[in-house]
Amino acid sequence: MYSNLCLTATAVAAIFALLAISTTRFSPPLPETLDEPNIEYLSIDGGVGPESFAFDSAGGGPYTGISDGRIIKWLPDKQRWIDFAVTSPNRTGCEEGEKEEERCGRPLGLRFKHGDGDLYIADAYMGLLHVGANGGLAKPVEFEMEEDQVLGFHSFTFANSLDIDQLSGHVYFTDSSSHYHRRNFASAILSGDSSGRLMKYDPKSKQLSLLLGNLSFPNGVSLSKNRDFLLLAETTKCRILKYWLGTGKAEVVGELPGFPDNIKRSRSSKGGGFWVGIHSRRGGVLRLILSQSWIGKGLVKLPLDVDKIYSYLGKWIGSGGVGVRVSEEGEVMEIIEGKAELRGRSFSEVEEGEDGVLWIGSINSPFAAKINVSKY
Ligand SMILES: *[C@@H]1O[C@H](CO)[C@@H](O)[C@H](O)[C@H]1NC(C)=O
Ligand SMILES: *[C@@H]1O[C@H](CO)[C@@H](O)[C@H](O)[C@H]1NC(C)=O
Ligand SMILES: *[C@@H]1O[C@H](CO)[C@@H](O)[C@H](O)[C@H]1NC(C)=O
């Protein structure tokens, strides 16, 4: 125990020493900087952190989940948000946000199933849920485990992102860790935790199956246009995996300049590919921490608030997020960086609206940002 603490004290000293000399290296194409007149900020009352967006089958919305556990819907005509759904019944004290999120829920991934209009929700605490087109209280999906598959845990610790195959109805989703909750995401990253899973849910048979295990913070997941593969963000490793649905084989297709969050397929006919929200750029220090798994593990054992250290480190490492469009092969095609209000904020998601507008989600913003790219 004592030697462990010594080791980690040295590591902390090394990290803080490195802070002074760390430089931000940023290899792929330089970010385009967007002018403020192209960005609208749609402020949110009562909560922060619109993490992910979804449009219903009629193109309405977007809908997004926020810190007090509500899923809200944007009404473009009225220029305001309305309440749509919640993932837990008792709303007392939920305005406290993060402090109460274990009880109030934290809806992250959202996707509508066309046809019946159900909204599927990956909630960081409540697991996989669904709610009808009229909203209200969402219900957990009913499922059966495949007997020949050892899932390890019969519940989800940190459901995060999802996508739906609109033809088969299959829901693909990630459980980012079997050990750490969302609130302790920094610990999950620093410790090199690799207990995350990619799962599939079939609403017809109610079968739940494991597609990939031993993942290091699996996060965004998105189905390809031809429905033959999934792109999957492995946040801790700053990389994108391609999972072939036919063969069940996975390969690394992209290394990124920061920590990837959600992945959404680009709807634009020109270019295509996928938008990846980059939570924060990868600095030299964090790269060092992550390459030395013992440092991360030691840090987690220290009686310090690792999440605070992480946010402190983040302030010094040029932590602002960016949005990156990657091809189906994972090559970086385009990078956008927010100016003004978006500067220094994490990008959890870039979702392309029907009208060529980009919606920028951010886990620490009191607004949803809307960028009109055609004006740019
Ligand atoms: C709702 O939650 C609050 C806060 O935890 C608790 O005091 C209250 O008893 C709960 N109400 C019901 C009906 O369970
Ligand atoms: C994870 O890795 C361990 C050790 O290598 C292995 O025994 C286990 O089967 C793997 N689990 C999954 C779900 O791939
Ligand atoms: C985006 O800007 C273009 C050019 O000013 C405009 O024609 C278009 O209506 C705008 N789109 C939206 C969705 O606001």
UniProtKB/TrEMBL annotation:
GO terms for molecular function: hydrolase activity. It is found in: Vacuole. It holds the Pfam family SSL_N. GO terms for cellular component: endomembrane system; vacuole. It comes from the Eukaryota. Keywords: Glycoprotein, Signal, Vacuole. Residues 160-245 form the Strictosidine synthase conserved region domain. This is Protein STRICTOSIDINE SYNTHASE-LIKE 2-like. The keyword Ligase does not apply. InterPro entries: 6-blade_b-propeller_TolB-like, Strictosidine_synth_cons-reg. Residues 1-26 form the signal peptide. Belongs to the strictosidine synthase family.
